[in-house]
Amino acid sequence: MAKLYTFGEMRQIINAELEHIDPDSSINNFSIDSRVVKKGEIFFCIKGENTDGHIYISQALERGAGAIVANPESIPETLRKNEFPRLLVADPNLALREWAAEVRTNFKGKVLAVTGSNGKTSTKEILAGLCRYFDPNAYATPGNFNNYIGVPLTLLDAPTEARWWIIEIGSNNFGEIAELSEIVRPTGGIITNIGESHLEFLLNTIGVAQEKSGLFAGMAPGSKVIIPESLLHLDIVEENAKKAGVELIKTRQITEESKGERHTFQLFDAEFETSINNPLFLQNLVSALTLLRSEGLSVPELQQATANLELGVKGRFQQINMGDWFLIDDTYNANPSSFQSVLENMQKIYPNNRKIVVCGKMAELGEQSRELHQQVGENMIKNGVKKMFGFGGEEIEFYLEGWAKGGGNPESAKHFTDLEEITKSFKLQLKPEDVVLVKGSRSAQMERFVEKIK
User: What is the mean pLDDT of residues 205-228?
Assistant: First the structure.
């Protein structure tokens, strides 16, 4: 947010009514967290899943907030008659998005957007790493700020002097990606895949394909989007791209050759060298390189950027040598398609090691939760997993049903609800050279187990 806005300008942008504010005075940054708001900043009373910023207006004012963006009906009655500076709007969340959309219009660089059922964050990090080789100011979505609140915050924090913004866009309901795309207005994009994610609201993979196609909504005709040629429901995505005038560029599965700790692969009729040895990340790298090639970067430039790329994404297929055994920390999130991919790649990378899975639930699967957890349980057996430690509620029983259906030994798969108990049992059964995958949805908080065993 390099440009300074006056409160008068802000009034027009977010359709606000000003009270106790000089419209000619300038805005000094913003915050949505009353605990860290700084003197002079605007405090947006954002409503989230678990809280409402209107509750914290007093705290924000005590910390020196210069103004409050609020719905007048949601301001606590004890404060309504107080003469504090405020911008009154119908929906502070919408106001934040409207301001972000305005800030986007001031950026003259490229905006590259990434969406998909899984692999969004790792692809975003790879793309950002490549871009930063050419421009240290290249800015990317921090963490998983990919929703109605996170995307506007990312745009408002992004430096306008950068050459690239790399924006991750997620969704758990119909229409979210399209609305966010219209705010972000991507100049290019990547759809990593279509899989079984957020089915509680998107219903099935057809719904997922329609929702991910929302990426095209904010793109100008002629913009390019990279997709894998094996994309599920390709026909749906192609039809939506055609309507939007967006060009799809398909990538193929590639194979790499190892040279010690370095790996090589062929792309654009040239050899690329990388330190990445994870097949999932490698395909994400190919998508990122293909997008940058379509944006005009030369093959030699991309070869240099790839050779210098270092990637360490915590909680995403993070391979950690624990001394005499190996940990794969994939605790960041989980859905059926990402679980299947991780199991397959664990089998490819460690074909001769005994494999153990420590798993939590997969969330937001709606009525298909039981069936999809069972499928993952079966996939564990198909991919050579010898032991399963399940941690959590009833979903673990669904994993166990699939484990049994796949022919797994019932004594080798157990359900735990206590962190101390699962940690103790795991340590007793761990053997040298074991490979241990820890995975679950965010709400399962499987990183607690990782911290315990570390």
Answer: 96
The gap between the terminal CA atoms of the chain, to the nearest Å, is: 40
Angstrom distance (rounded) from CA 344 to CA 118: 15
Say if CB 268 and CB 299 are below 8 A apart. yes
From residue 193, give the alpha-carbon distance in Å to each of 25, 136, 233, 395. Answer: 47, 29, 10, 25
Stretch 275-282: mean pLDDT? 82
Quick one: pLDDT at residue 259?
A: 65
Between the CA of residue 385 and those of 151, 323, 355, what are the distances in Å?
38, 21, 5
Closest CA to 282 of 244, 242, 228, 239: 228
Instruction: Give yes or no for residue 202 having a pLDDT over 80.
Output: no
Angstrom CA distances, 219 to 151, 175, 234, 401, stand at 16, 15, 19, 45
Determine the CATH number of domain 7-91. 3.40.1390.10
Of 384, 382, 376, the C-alpha closest to 402 is: 376
Question: Distance between CA 183 and CA 28 in Å, rounded?
Answer: 22
Domain locations in the chain as residue ranges: 7-91, 107-307, 318-453
Architecture of domain 318-453: Alpha-Beta Complex (3.90)
Residue 120 · residue 168 · CB < 8 Å = yes
- Beta strand 224-228 pairing with 247-251: parallel
Buried b / exposed e across 202-227, counting CB within 10 Å, b at 16+? beebebbbbbbbbbbbbbeeebbbbb
> What is the rounded average pLDDT of the residues 388-415?
96
Whether the CB-CB separation of 67 and 89 falls below 8 Å is answered with: no
Distance CA 298, CA 289 (A): 10
